[in-house]
Structure formats: C-alpha cells, structure tokens
C-alpha cells in the first residue's frame, strides 16, 4: 500500500496539501498537515492516488513524498 | 559522580592502556562477517544508546549495501546528550580498547573502510591517544577518526550524528532515506552506541551462550541515592537491587524515572521490576540508556515532570512544526497543572496536545516527551486530582 510521508524538517505548514487532499490531510491548529486517521504515514487508497500525486507535486517545500509500492 | 565496579566485564576488567586490556581480555578473534552477525543475533545484543534496536539487524542492513559506489562507514556514538547519563564517558575512560575493538569488529562486519568516534569533548583527547597506541601496535585495519560532539540533548540522535560527520548541522534529518543506506557523505552508515560496541567485543570473544548467561549493562543512577554513579549490573536486575547498589534511595521514593528524560515513571509499588524491555514494558518504560532517577521524598512528581518537559521543549531542534509549536504548549500546560491552577480542562489539554505532537517530527523527540508525560499522568493520577482541587499530595505550595 502506498503511504504518504511528510518530511517535517522541510514542511512549513499553511499548506496546499490539506486543500488538495482533504480526505487524508487536515490542518492542525498551526497549519501543519495532520493525517485524518491519525497515523504517522497514512495509507493512500488507489482512488486517491492521482490527488496524492498532485499534492506531492504542488508542495512548495518538496516535503511530501509517496512511499511504498 | 563515582563509578562503582561490579564483577561484570565491561568496567570490571577494564584497563585504559592496551597492554592491560590485552591481559584482561585476550586477543580479538577475527570472524567472517556472516558468522559474526549470526553470533550477534544469537546473543540477542540490542543497542545501548536508548532505542534498544537489535544490533544484528542494523549490521546486516549496512552489510547489504556494501557493494555500492561508496564503501560503508561505521560510527561509534558516545555523544551521551542525556543530562542524567554518565555511562558512556565512564566506559570510554575505563575501557577505551574494548570500545575500539568493537568498532573494528563492526567495521569488519559491514565491510567499512572508515570508522569514526563521536564523543563528548572530555573523552576525545584520551581516546585519540588510545587510537594512536593501537595504530602504533598495528592493531586496527580500519582507520579511526575521533570527533568532538556538541553537548546537547539531541546531539547523539543517529541522523544528527551523520549530519555533523557529513559537514552539516547537528540536527536530525528526515528518515525517508535510512542512514544504513545513505549516511555519512552518502555512504551506508552504521551508527552504534559505544557501550553496544564494547558489548560486541565481548560477544565476539566469548560467544552467544556466554553472553546470554553473563550479560551485563551499564546504568547511571542519579538523584537522591546514597552513591550516585555508574553501575555495571546483570541484564534484568531488579530495579530495587540497582538502587541498592547505588547506596539505596535516601527515602522511599513514590516513583522512579527509568530510561532518562524520554523514559517513564515506575511507581513505588513496582520497584522490584526487572530492568529489561519485557519487565519494564507494562509501565511503558524500557531500560533505554540505563538512566535511573528516583523522585526525592516530598517532591511532587507532576512538578518534576513539568520541569523536565520544560527542558525538553527547549532542547528540540526547532525544525519540525508540530514539535516546535507543540512541545512548548505541552510544557506550559504541564506547568499550569504543576502549579495547581484548578482548571479542570488541563488534563484533557495535556492528552490532546500529546496526541497532536506524537509521531509528527523527524526524530523521536516528540514521542519520547509524550511517553514521559503519559506515564506521569498515569502514575501521578491521584496528584492530578489533588492539584485540580488546589492541593498537593506532597505538601508543596503553589
Ligand atoms: S504543502 Fe508541503 S510545506 Fe505546505 S503544509 Fe503541505 S507538506 Fe507542508
Ligand atoms: S522532531 Fe523536534 S527535536 Fe526532532 S528534529 Fe524535529 S524539531 Fe527537532
């Protein structure tokens, strides 16, 4: 299962990712992405893969990564 | 702080010079890498830096990347940033050659061409002399370079060590690429605590069965005990026996902090628990790097925890948003609870913030901080209730 990884050393919050991928990410009270299922690296369902790829591409800090098969 | 020796072989047979070391321990066997990794696996050796990760898994991971463009690198980690810990510098002072033996064994196991030692400034000079002594004796096939670590809580974090040795800042980095695959200068890298390396030198000499029977570890007992210091004790020793070895608590403590500032409180009723991963698991604790701190008589566990969390909030590398923002908030909330500000929402606030920071950083700092806080909220649950009503079970005044 493909997972979403946030590089916290790069992420600066207030993100596009939470807008592009609301199914998986919601902003926390400081604007940093928090996985909606509260896991460290949320699993990306196949149906959401295109959205996830778009969020990865649009992260201005290159902080989002898709990992795994 | 005074180190007290026991019958163990880490400190007990330690001799700072090479000749004394040879007399005490005998020659270092040369084992093929796969045999050595197998012995380490059978011995059950795990890391003594804090995380307790199985050593053979790391060795095999780095070995697995040995065929690449850059030959592997090994790093002996003696940065020892935990304020309560003194066991690594004690070991380096008393038995440097056991650590250096282990470094060579690790280098041979993973096929490394270069070895580093990353230690506190006070350990660096004597260690560099020990390295020269061995070089003159033609002992070390893999060259060793000694580096001075910064004295900071997180300076020994594996990826921070790698970052410094690669010419960068002493801060943890993202774990998407593991250091075992791409570490110092992009080379596959094994970072191993210096005590683990000394243990490795014993495993190679005496075998897995001996190790399982005779295994010891180094603990630092600090705080209100008769003789604070570094103690070498049998694996799985009862926490009470370890405290007794250190002269016993000055007064019966209500709880004992085990595993340092990223550790957990063990309640008084359980102080005969064995110092092992399995024994301590029910309390959310683990031996970690072996730091043991009893609560002083009349000291409020919540106030003590709040002070530690305040320290931890300031010790972060301040690069990950949730850690950078969340830890100071957690510290402030714990401090309000410790001050008996009768706001009934404080415990829920602690729980919410703990869940918010956990797992959301490049290193284990948020998770270690949450572990300490959650154990305090459990072990000192009665104190929490009392504090919310404006009184303290330990008689402290706000
Ligand atoms: S878009 Fe990138 S930098 Fe912005 S919040 Fe999301 S992960 Fe962080
Ligand atoms: S989690 Fe905290 S301590 Fe760890 S690297 Fe990030 S900011 Fe630094």
What does this structure look like?
The complex is a heterodimer of chains A (69) and B (398). Helix content of chain A is 20%, strand content 20%. Chain A has 69 residues and is of the alpha+beta class. Chain A has a single domain (3-67), classed as 2-Layer Sandwich (Alpha-Beta Plaits). In chain A, a hairpin with a 5-residue loop joins strand 2 and strand 3. Chain A is globular. Chain B is 44% helix and 12% strand. Chain B contains 15 helices and ten strands. In chain B, the strands form two sheets. A six-stranded mixed beta sheet of chain B has the order 1-7-6-10-8-9, sandwiched between helices. In chain B, strands 4-3-2-5 form a four-stranded parallel beta sheet, with helices on both faces. Chain B is α/β, with parallel strands linked by helices and 398 residues long. The chains are: A alpha+beta (69), B alpha/beta (398). The A-B interface holds A 5-13, 28-32, 34, 38-40, 65, 67 and B 171-174, 176, 319-323, 325-326, 355-356, 359-362. Bound molecules: iron/sulfur cluster (SF4) (2 copies). Residues 6, 11-13, 15-17, 33, 59, 61, 63-64 of chain A line the site of one iron/sulfur cluster. One iron/sulfur cluster (SF4) binds at residues 6, 11-13, 15-17, 33, 59, 61, 63-64 of chain A.
